[in-house]
């Protein structure tokens, strides 16, 4: 009886081809006939092949280890390190040495980069929206429109002339102390005899203090009482103690609408002296069809704003407001009816300070120069300080 | 030791390694280590872990090549990368068993790495069992079998080494050892398989 070990000897001999031909054929026959023997043979083959491939695996591992050790040693030499053979990195990928904080920051940035980008763009967007929005809102506040020019005079621009004039005054000798000319100026006129005046809203817009100056160089301090932005109207009151009153006003205010083609004129301060201009009423509506304004064909200049607009019979029919740049000689004036409405509503609100408007008109019938002579003392420069 | 780098193409690499050219193996190993090392370091691994994973990956490749069963459908570099990536992700998953899932963000590439890895795993298990069986076999059987099968020593050498009177004696001893090893190996292997 053969032991299993004997069979193994037989199998090995068979595999190595050491069996004689008859013995081999005999074994092959028995292998195909006897399933137990075939199983035993399969087990033997399995075992030996596993063993030898296991051996190969071990040797391959040794090889790889050796290669790695080579690499490490190479790296160690390269670093000229003393003993840190195992601590070295591989040669081709130099390690980046960064501090702990920096690493944290880097990780944070990696993780939250997208979020921060979004936050930043939202912030930028918000800032610009706010700025533009504010700008737009401010623009809305002013009745200025494209092509429409407010006729308030920027005094800085003419400071040079002023200086020349001051020099001239100094040479004369009766030298007044140098006068702060204010930042802007416009024209205003008396509303009542007890110290109310009318001018354009845009003249006193943003004013810290308002000074009015008559033809006789008398100055009074005034304060805005009421402003109507939509109709570009402002009512001022003189608050100086030594002010005694204007005296009786020569003109009256027209409550209705003036006729087209009416001869009209204005007095104003586009420069340091009073300037007269005339023309006619050319349309019943103002800029872009605004029904609160007239269109007039009077050549007006910066500084004319707030000036009175009178018709032939000396009725006050409007207040000069602005002009259109792209149209020849098209100026605009607020209708006096709106001024009247404003005064009426103010009187109704405040019974203590009744507005006693002039009822009679002393200008009717007199010639233009005579009218102007009577009128000129009631038209003032409005100087605005910011 | 800056070796003259005789550069091989992929095909030459495979052919050389199949022939058993250790220089080619070393060169291949050097060539792709930085890539895998970089990948592992980028994915919260250490230098040593990178080397480990890389060796395992190269081993898979090497055994396939020696087997002659490698069917390379892409570059060796891609293949090694895929294998090492799978290996590393698996290790990571084991390491962070409690910490969330791991995403494999990279596009799936058909490299055959998956199948090869499964095969390699099976082989690993087999070898582990074999190693264990050898451990249990005891002396002198273990040394005898290791000497013959693992270290490729001849029977004559072993006869002298172990002090047998002649080679036949040694051979007989070897067969007896084989029988015992077979019992240990198969009972163990089948047991594990039944899991």
TrEMBL record, chain A:
Give a GO molecular function annotation for the protein. Answer: serine-type endopeptidase activity
The organism sits in which domain of life? Bacteria
Name the Pfam families on file. Answer: Trypsin_2
Q: Which UniProt keywords apply?
A: Hydrolase, Protease
Q: Where does the signal peptide begin and end?
A: none
InterPro entries attached here?
A: Peptidase_S1_PA (IPR009003), Peptidase_S1C (IPR001940)
A single GO BP:
proteolysis
In Swiss-Prot or TrEMBL terms, this protein is called Serine protease, S1-C subfamily, contains C-terminal PDZ domain
TrEMBL record, chain B:
> What is a GO molecular function of this protein?
sigma factor activity
Q: What keyword terms does UniProt attach to this protein?
A: DNA-binding, Sigma factor, Transcription, Transcription regulation
Taken from the record, one Pfam family name reads Sigma70_r2
Gene Ontology process terms (BP) = DNA-templated transcription initiation
RNA polymerase sigma-70 region domain boundaries = 28-97
Asked if the record carries the keyword Nucleus, the reply is no
Q: Which domain of life is it from?
A: Bacteria
Signal peptide range equals none
**Presence of keyword Zinc:** no
Protein name, per record:
RNA polymerase sigma factor, sigma-70 family
């Amino acid at each position: 009886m053969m032991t299993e070990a004997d069979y193994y000897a037989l199998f090995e001999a068979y595999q190595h081809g050491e069996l004689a031909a008859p013995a081999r054929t005999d074994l092959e026959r028995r292998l195909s006939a006897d399933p137990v023997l075939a199983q035993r043979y399969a087990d033997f083959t399995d075992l030996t092949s596993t063993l030898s491939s296991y051996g190969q695996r071990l040797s391959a591992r040794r090889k790889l280890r050796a290669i790695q050790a080579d690499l490490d040693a190479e790296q160690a030499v390269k670093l000229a390190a003393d003993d840190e053979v195992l601590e070295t990195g591989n040669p081709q990928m130099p390690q980046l040495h960064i501090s702990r904080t920096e690493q944290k920051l880097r990780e944070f940035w990696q993780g939250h980069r997208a979020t921060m980008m979004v936050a930043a763009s939202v912030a930028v967007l918000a800032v610009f929206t706010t700025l533009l929005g504010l700008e737009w809102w401010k623009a809305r506040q002013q009745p200025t429109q494209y092509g429409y020019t407010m006729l308030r005079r920027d005094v800085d621009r003419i400071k040079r002339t002023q200086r020349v004039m001051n020099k001239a005054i100094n040479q004369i000798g009766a030298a007044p102390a140098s006068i702060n000319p204010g930042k802007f100026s416009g024209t205003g006129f008396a509303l009542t005899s007890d110290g109310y005046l009318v001018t354009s809203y845009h003249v006193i817009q943003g004013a810290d203090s308002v000074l009015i100056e008559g033809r006789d160089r008398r100055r009074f301090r005034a304060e805005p009482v009421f402003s109507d932005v939509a109709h570009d109207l402002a009512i001022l009151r003189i608050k100086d103690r030594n002010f005694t009153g204007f005296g009786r006003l020569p003109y009256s205010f027209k409550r209705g609408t003036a006729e087209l083609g009416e001869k009209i004129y204005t007095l104003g301060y586009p420069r340091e002296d009073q300037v007269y201009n005339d023309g006619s009423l050319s349309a019943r509506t103002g800029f872009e069809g605004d029904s609160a304004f007239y269109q007039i064909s009077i050549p007006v200049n910066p500084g004319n704003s707030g000036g009175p607009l009178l018709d032939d019979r000396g009725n006050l029919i409007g207040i000069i407001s602005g002009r259109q740049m792209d149209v020849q000689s098209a100026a605009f004036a607020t209708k006096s009816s709106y001024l009247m409405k404003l005064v009426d509503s103010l009187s109704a609100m405040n019974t203590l300070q009744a507005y006693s408007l002039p009822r009679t008109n002393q200008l009717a019938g007199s010639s233009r120069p005579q009218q102007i002579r009577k009128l000129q003392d009631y038209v003032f420069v409005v100087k605005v300080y910011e | 030791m800056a070796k003259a780098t005789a550069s091989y193409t992929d095909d030459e690499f495979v052919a050389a390694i199949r022939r058993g050219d250790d220089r080619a193996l070393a060169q291949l190993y050097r060539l792709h280590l930085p890539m895998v090392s970089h990948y592992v370091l980028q994915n919260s691994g250490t230098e040593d872990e990178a080397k480990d994973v890389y060796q395992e990956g190269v081993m898979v490749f090497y055994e396939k090549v020696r087997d002659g069963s490698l069917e390379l459908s892409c570059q060796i570099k891609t293949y090694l990368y895929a294998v090492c990536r799978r290996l590393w992700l698996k290790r990571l998953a084991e390491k962070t068993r409690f910490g969330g899932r791991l995403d494999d963000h990279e596009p799936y590439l058909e490299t055959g790495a998956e199948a090869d890895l499964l095969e390699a795993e099976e082989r690993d298990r087999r070898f582990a069992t074999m190693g264990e069986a050898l451990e249990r076999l005891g002396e002198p059987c273990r040394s005898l079998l290791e000497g013959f099968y693992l270290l490729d020593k001849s029977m004559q050498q072993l006869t002298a080494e172990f002090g047998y009177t002649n080679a036949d004696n040694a051979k007989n001893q070897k067969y007896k050892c084989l029988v015992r090893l077979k019992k240990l190996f198969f009972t163990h292997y089948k047991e594990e398989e039944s899991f």
